[in-house]
Amino acid sequence: MNEIEEIKQSALFLAVGDEDRIYCPFCRNDERSMKVTRYSTGIYYHCFRATCSNGRGFTGSLPSNLRAKEEKRFVPNVFTKETSDLSMIDIDFLYNKYKITGQEIEDNKISKIEGGFAFPLYNSAGYEWGIATKIMNPRPKQKKTILYRRAKTCGLHYAQPWKGDFTTVILTEGVLDAIKVNRIGQGVALSGTDLHTDQAGDLIAIGCKRLWICLDPDASHKAHKIRNTYGLFFEECKVFQLSADPKDLPFDQLVKELEI
After folding, report:
1. pTM for this prediction
2. CATH 3.40.1360.10 in the chain, residues?
3. What pLDDT score does 51 carry?
4. Closest alpha carbon to 231 in 193, 260, 259, 204
5. Residue 181 and residue 139 in contact, taking contact as beta carbons nearer than 8 Å
6. CA torsion angle for 90, 245, 207, 44 (degrees, to 10)?
7. What is the architecture, at CATH level 2, of domain 88-257?
8. Rounded to the nearest 5 degrees, what angle is found at the Cα of 170, between the Cα atoms of 49 and 185?
9. DSSP helix/strand/coil, 9
10. What sign results for the dihedral spanned by CA atoms 173, 174, 176, 178?
């Protein structure tokens, strides 16, 4: 049995989304620890020894004889807000504030809710996995953004329309940021500032080679943490220190700051 098969066997009894620690089969003599994470498309593994050149990767799809346990029970948030089509005032607002065009509104199926907007969330397979809402003028203690999940998913949002090529992925915090940078490369929103192991595995699985991290200026330390944790899995992993949130930058300025 080779090292990869040992890693696959270690995930035999893991539920999707679970992780375990094993001895790294590549560092057998040193008994170094390896983290193994199981999710629906394969196994992500990461040896904690910095000099272990083979101890980081993704196995891809699993053989049919390796079956994960049934996923843990997951109760999604229920979206109960009433939505409506955008008025010309709403369309003008999105363009004047964020320079989001009418075509981008149509491609991403943005709709109106009371006090703000709703954005369908899509995974790497093109399926809608949830909805994000953004309140434009929140009341005190009212959240600006709320996520409603319909199923257990990796939680990344792939802006529409698809580029048809995931070689270059531009990672942002919010949905509007991802829509804006999608004019340059495939925009992907974290809906936060952390990239989790299963999310990184999803990017590896779809063939991402270049990961450009464009978080908001106040999350620079989080951007560097992502690069330091997952940078070795990509041919290029760069952090861009922007002068403002991507959604707030004029497009010409955004292109200039990305050094394109």
Report:
1. 0.71
2. 88-257
3. 79
4. 204
5. no
6. -110
7. 3-Layer(aba) Sandwich (3.40)
8. 135
9. helix
10. positive
Instruction: Locate 73 and state its tokens.
Output: 């029970």
| Coil/strand/helix, residue 171 | strand
Q: Which residues pair with 180 in a beta bridge?
A: none
If you ran DSSP here, which 8-state letter would residue 51 be given? T
Which residue in the block uniquely carries the two structure tokens 């203690």? 141
How far is Cα 78 from Cα 26, in angstroms, rounded to an integer? 45
Q: What's the pLDDT score for residue 144?
A: 78
Are 56 and 46 spatial neighbours (Cβ–Cβ below 8 Å)?
Answer: yes
Asked if pLDDT for residue 18 goes beyond 90, the answer is no
Tell the burial category of 72 from Cβ atoms under 10 Å away from its Cβ (0-12, 13-18, 19+).
Answer: exposed
Measure the CA–CA gap between 73 and 131, rounded to whole angstroms.
20
Verify cis geometry, omega within 30 degrees of 0, for the bond prior to 161. Answer: yes
Sign of the torsion angle spanned by Cα atoms 27, 29, 33, 39? positive
